[in-house]
Design brief:
The protein has 171 residues and is mainly β. The chain has no helices and eleven strands. The chain has strands at residues 24-26, 35-39, 44-48, 53-59, 65-72, 79-85, 88-92, 113-122, 125-132, 136-140, 152-153. The protein has a four-stranded antiparallel beta sheet, with no helix packed on it. Strands 8-9-10-11 form a four-stranded antiparallel beta sheet, with no helix packed on it. Strands 5-6-7 form a three-stranded antiparallel beta sheet, with no helix packed on it. Strand 9 (125-132) and strand 10 form a beta hairpin. It is globular and about 50 Å long. The protein starts with 23 loop residues before the first strand and ends in an 18-residue tail after the last strand.
């Protein structure tokens, strides 16, 4: 089947609120059958291509969700789901359980997060980024710990919504 998704049946699903950004297509079981991860203001959910809920992966959090991210670490189908709400990021595993080793602490409790989030891996090193409304950029490892000791100030113009890091090659 490759990386293309084929939806055989047309179906509809009522949602409690609008989808925040384009759905993410993931393959939880590495079986070529894709699932759909959706982030709305009210909940995060993963559903099958036929519209059925994946057990444990419909999550509501205490406040309004502003963003999220699905990460397939090392392409080993060991997904983590990051839900951005207020000034915190909640991390769930594939079973929908809160990841206990996730340690993100937004020291500036007044700085809400924008919902902008990204993941990249360079030379085997993970970089998770979450942006705050005061332009702080939290660059974290996969445990939620700061990569650079503290948040960095973003100098990118407001119009930038995506940052591509260059590939680092060793000679």
């Amino acid at each position: 089947m490759g990386s293309e998704m084929c939806i055989r049946d047309r179906w509809e699903r009522a949602l409690q609120s609008n989808i925040l950004f384009a759905p993410e297509f993931i393959d939880l079981q590495n079986d070529g059958e894709f699932e759909i991860a959706l982030f709305t203001k009210q909940e995060f959910m993963v559903i099958t291509a036929t519209g059925k809920n994946i057990a444990g992966l419909t999550k509501k959090v205490g406040g309004e969700i502003v963003g999220g991210l699905c990460v397939n670490y090392d392409q080993k189908y060991d997904y983590r789901f990051f839900v951005v709400e207020g000034n915190r990021v909640i991390c769930f595993n594939e079973k929908g359980e809160t990841v206990t080793g996730w340690k993100f602490a937004n020291e500036n409790q007044n700085a809400s997060l924008t919902g902008e989030a990204a993941y990249t891996q360079i030379a085997g090193v993970d970089f998770l980024t979450f942006k705050a409304v005061n332009d702080e950029l939290f660059v974290l490892n996969r445990r939620g710990e700061p990569r650079f000791g503290e948040a960095v100030q973003s100098k990118l113009p407001v119009s930038y919504t995506h940052l591509t890091l260059p590939t680092i090659c060793s000679v």
